Structure formats: C-alpha cells, structure tokens
Amino acid sequence: MSWRSILISKPARLSLQQNHLLIQQDDTVPVPLEDIAVIVVESREVVLTAPLLSALAQYGITLLTCDEQFLPCGQWLPFARYHRSLKILKYQMEMTLPQKKQLWQQIVKQKIRNQAWLLDYSGHDIAAGRLNALADSVKSGDKNFAESQAAALYFRVLFGEHFTRSHDNAVNACLNYGYSIVRSAVARALVQYGFLPALGLQHHSGLNAFNLADDFIEPYRPMVDLLVWENGFTNGLPDTLTPQAKQKLVSLLHCQIKLDRRSYSLLAAIDRTVQSFQTALTGGSKNLKLPEMLPLKVQDYE
C-alpha cells in the first residue's frame, strides 16, 4: 500500500531513476515509486521528464498541478489500469435510476452522520442531534434535500454564524484545497477499479469529467472540515493558504478513519469504498462501505 504524499512547493527537477522519483532541488532526494500515492506540484518552476510521467501511470500514482492561486487544477491519472475495464464500464452504464438513487441515499446519510459527529466532537451536541435526525430522514435519491438542509446548519455552527462557503477567506481556501486533494484520491481509486469518473450517480454535469468522484467524496469531506477546524487555519489573509496548512492537508490522506468497524488510512478507506461500489454493481452486497469519523491521527502502518 502506497503511503507517501509529496508536496513540491519550490523549483525542482523531477525525473525517474531506477524505479525512484528523483527530486533535484538544493539536495537530490530519491523516493521509491511504490511508496507514493499522490504528488502535488504547486511551484511554477518544476520540470518533469516523460519517463517519470509514464512510470507514475504504471504505478497508479496521482500527479496534481496547481493554478496561480496554488489550488489543484489538473490531474494525471493512469490509463487502463484495470484488467476488465470494459466489463465494469458496461455495469456502470447500465445502472438503473432507482439503483443510483438508493446508492446516493446511502452516501448522503453517511455524510450527514459524519457532519453530526464533528459537531458533537466540537461541542455542539444539540446541533449534532438535529443532523442525526436529518440523516435518519433521508429518502431514496435525497428527494427531501436533506444534504442541503444539513449543510446550511453544519457550516454555520462549525465555523461561525456568518460563515458561508461562497466567501473568500482562509477557511474556504483551506477547505477547497483539502477537498481537491481528497477528490483526486477518489478519482484515482475509481480509475484503478475500471470506472469512468465522468458518469456519476447524482452529479451529472456535462462539463465535469469527475462526476462520480464528486459523488463518492461526500462522506469524506468532513475529514477535511475536521482538520481545518482543529488546526484553526483562519488567521491568514483572505483566500491565502499557508505552507503549513497545505502540507497538513496533503498529509490528511494518511490520517485514520473508520470503515467496516476497522481503522484505515483515508487512502485505504477510499479504495475499499470504491471496491464496495464495484461489488454493488456486479451482484454482491448492495450496501456501500462508507467511512465513519475518528479523531485526527495518522494511521499506524503495520
């Protein structure tokens, strides 16, 4: 299991050397490719070699590049990593609307429960109770819009009465950065299991190549919220991300989360969630394996 997430924030040359990523900056550092899950390149002065890009695809490593605001804007994903891609794509394209609605119901329920956990963890037990009741009321396809009702209460309680997701501030900058990192990990897992990320359950924008990733990220979003809340990344200039915040957000992929009554790293849990989606489509259990929140801690690797 790959376990490293690498942030390149200074000028560098990245190349391939004997199955290692060679990072050439002030010093030269080799990193085994088999250890790497995600590389985030935010410096505008980074050179990557073609053999390295090919090796990243072969090892299933996600490469993210950033825009002028240092937010991830591009993703390099492996091509044809799964040995039965056509079969999985056929299952995906033949999903019925009721099937999509039932899976989306599970996702929304668990997202709201995870939001409720975080409100309770942060000392807002009354609001947490309201969210748990809302989670219990989610209908197939979320036709009562429980997800949006939960969000309206959740963010205001967690980050302050006047907080909204549309404002340009340090909290939203950190949230957007963290969500981008987790979204990339979800897209990576979907591709590895042969899914086409553009074909979503609930998200279906014709302009979005990652609709399915935007479906499955939902119950994982509160992990980003937890890190931003717990570390208090609220004191920078509007829409400014500190290097410390970015490093912590990239490292979030290796923090613990509960799934199927066991503790996994976020990366490993995402893999198992996508695997359960494959099982649901191929005639196995219809219940997705979705994450439950745990206090923020790096997952121990055996």
TrEMBL record:
Pfam families: Cas_Cas1 (PF01867). The keyword Metal-binding applies. Its EC number is 3.1.-.-. It is an enzyme of class 3 (hydrolase). Its cofactor is Mg(2+); Mn(2+). The keyword Hydrolase applies. Transmembrane segments: none annotated. InterPro entries: Cas1 (IPR050646), CRISPR-assoc_Cas1 (IPR002729), CRISPR-assoc_Cas1_C (IPR042206), CRISPR-assoc_Cas1_NMENI (IPR019855). Mn(2+) binds at residues 147, 203, 218. CDD domains: Cas1_II. CRISPR (clustered regularly interspaced short palindromic repeat), is an adaptive immune system that provides protection against mobile genetic elements (viruses, transposable elements and conjugative plasmids). CRISPR clusters contain spacers, sequences complementary to antecedent mobile elements, and target invading nucleic acids. CRISPR clusters are transcribed and processed into CRISPR RNA (crRNA). Acts as a dsDNA endonuclease. Involved in the integration of spacer DNA into the CRISPR cassette. Belongs to the CRISPR-associated endonuclease Cas1 family. This is CRISPR-associated endonuclease Cas1.
